[in-house]
Amino acid sequence: MEAKLYDGPMIDAHQHFWQPQINPHPWLAPDVLIPFRYGDYSAIKREYLPPDYLKDATPKHNVVATVYVDAEWDPKDPMGETKYIHTVAEKYGMPNAVVAQAWLHADDVEAVLKAQSQYPLVRSVRHKPAGALSPAEAQSGIRTLMSDEKWRQGYALLAKFGLNFDLQTPWWNLHEAKRLALDFPDTLIILNHTGLPYDRSAEGLKEWHKAMSLLSDIPNIVVKISGIGLPDKKWDINDNRWIVQETVQIFGTDRAMFASNFPVDSLCGDLETIFTGFKEAVKDYSPEDQHKLFFANAKKYYKMKI
């Protein structure tokens, strides 16, 4: 079969919209710069709405739907972000699914999850579980909130409200993710940003691969291939092809999906380059498998009505 770049409909499984001038995103405030994996992110402190996204994506990439992921809105008002993004969807017809904010170790977690689940586009929640900041810290015994009993009690409520969990954590914490998935088999974990393969040294990639492989046979963990740019370097498929291909190999074409992480990843590449790179990396797969990676899996896992 001749290799061919995918040219069908696409669902972007992880992106953000925001209006920093009116939205309470502390990290996007004019006088704030937090430590960030891509360095100085001042360039994305601008309004970014569906018309901006579609201008970036089209005409070459046929993105027909997107998944909005929480964007570090003021944690004192988790419902404010959900209400806001539903007004965006009503006005523009996009996004088409929402990953909402919830603090799983908070005293009001059950009320928040119930309220989030009642919004028509909410399919999942995200709470970055912090923890070890390096492989050495993880090896020393530092654990994330995935091992905290109160947090896990909140996590246990996700199944009650029919919600997935979007997990963003570096690869060196994935042994905890495996345990979480096994302990709560009725909750789907969607691993964000390819397990964050920061370290591109031979040893770093070897350890990332080993950690990702821990999840290869866990049916209630799937992965989003995204967020693999490098600081101070333009996005290039030659830097990322092996990571993309190995991720698909580890998880299989039924448990992986592509996403842009825009506008965040505009710091390292344009949408044309990133999406074309993804298509190039999997061009040897069958049209059916490419359709799963670019469209069908995101539709299924985020229960999208499109």
From TrEMBL:
GO-annotated molecular function? hydrolase activity
Q: Where is the signal peptide?
A: none
Q: Give all residue intervals belonging to the Amidohydrolase-related domain.
A: 11-303
Q: Which Gene3D superfamilies match?
A: Metal-dependent hydrolases (3.20.20.140)
Q: Which Pfam families match?
A: Amidohydro_2
Question: What family does this belong to?
Answer: Belongs to the metallo-dependent hydrolases superfamily.
Q: What is this protein called?
A: Thioesterase
Q: What is the lineage of its organism?
A: Bacteria, Pseudomonadati, Pseudomonadota, Gammaproteobacteria, Pasteurellales
